[in-house]
Write a structure and sequence with these properties.
Elements lengths: L1 H17 L3 H6 L17 H21 L2 H19 L5 H21 L4
Length: about 120
């Protein structure tokens, strides 16, 4: 289990810091507005950018745990947490604490046998 936790944390660090560019960080925010996008609905670009960012996290969790179900749970949880942070319900440190809490929850689900 410690090895799985290690890979969950590595995956989080890579996806949230290494792979998240400034462009992604800005454009996943529903409140960010730009006129440079070549789109008929630039105000909706955040949905696709957020989905892509969350999919990176989902993939990292699925790879670390061997469970697509946990990957999908990560996708949903990461989306909700990031949306709330972007809407200023809480800040960076709470965001990171919640993400790490999810990793512990996935580990507990694995250990309990609820998820194979």
């Amino acid at each position: 289990m410690l090895e799985t936790l290690f890979w969950l944390l590595v995956g989080h660090a890579v996806a949230d810091f290494g792979l998240q560019s400034d462009w992604i960080a800005q454009h996943k925010n529903p409140s960010f507005r730009t006129k440079v996008e070549r789109s008929s609905r630039p105000e909706l670009i955040w949905i696709e950018v957020s989905a892509a960012h969350c999919m990176m996290h989902a993939g990292a969790v699925a790879l670390a745990t061997g469970s697509m179900v946990l990957g999908l749970l990560e996708f949903v949880a990461h989306w909700i947490i990031d949306f709330c942070k972007c809407e200023n319900y809480f800040g960076f440190h709470t965001d990171q604490l919640l993400h790490l809490g999810c990793k512990l929850a996935w580990l507990m689900l694995l250990a309990s046998g609820w998820i194979d």
